[in-house]
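=== Given protein ===
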Amino acid sequence: MEINLVSDTVTKPTPEMLRYMFQAEVGDDVYKQDPTVNALQANVAGIFGMEDALFFPSGTMANQTAIKLLTQPGDQLIADKWAHVFNFEGGGVSFNSGVSCQLIDGNRGMITADQVQAAINPPDFYHSPLTSLVCVENTTNKGGGACYDLAELKKIRSVCDANGLKFHLDGARIWNALVANSENPREYGKMFDTISVCLSKGLGAPAGSLLISDKETIRKALRIRKILGGGMRQVGYLAAAGNYALENHVSRLAEDHRRAKEIAAVLQKLNWVASVEPVETNILIFALHSRVPESVLLDKLKQKNISISTLGHGKLRIVTHLDYREVMHSYVIETLQRMSF
């Protein structure tokens, strides 16, 4: 029994999802003739109360398209220092959009309205880049699945409005935040100019993300997606996986959250663990005591057919997901409790 807790991107389609995919009605999406893609786009836009959505092969491409649409070359965006758009998108902010980043030292990947206000360059000071966009990530990846408080996001929106800035949400794991806090996705639709949402993490689809916005922005996004090479043909087979996931895999995210919290509770009692960061959703980050080398722990777990990932500097990450079943969970907890150094 191999147990992969490296990421929630390692999941495979369930048999039911595969059957749903095989039965999909498809067409040529480049000509906007794939009915399954069209249905998915309309569905996701409706969930967030926004006008339109566009299917992308990846969350990175969706984020990069949003940044391209909301900025001009030479502009600057504001984001947390751990933001995915800065750290894990191949430098696309500068390569694709000619934009620099003003990084904020936030809390677990989250920034505040006061920090945003302080980071805005004076618009009439032409020696510095023009601040034009704020990007936030919910839940935060490197922040251990932390969730923004809606009230703080609304404050950031007010700062954006007062300073003529656009507001983008990297919602790669927004479904986790919605379930964890029983939130209404339409609250997010009211706040953001653009939202990217992912189908291939917590929801378990094999690929796909969507960018959501008003109709005019999505019309322009279609051209940027083309420029970036993101046009696909009978992509309805992938869109069908997304439709199935939205119907069947959202509420079950609570199981992933429960299991992550239960693992955290076990780790907190082990004398070879120095600290465990707060767990809100499905990502768990913990630190080892200096006497325990990361490589030794990783090897010991590997011998037990358990894989987790390292963040370096003695920190490790566990991510629970759709393919991590209860029998695996019991085995992981028992293995951790018996482990000594």
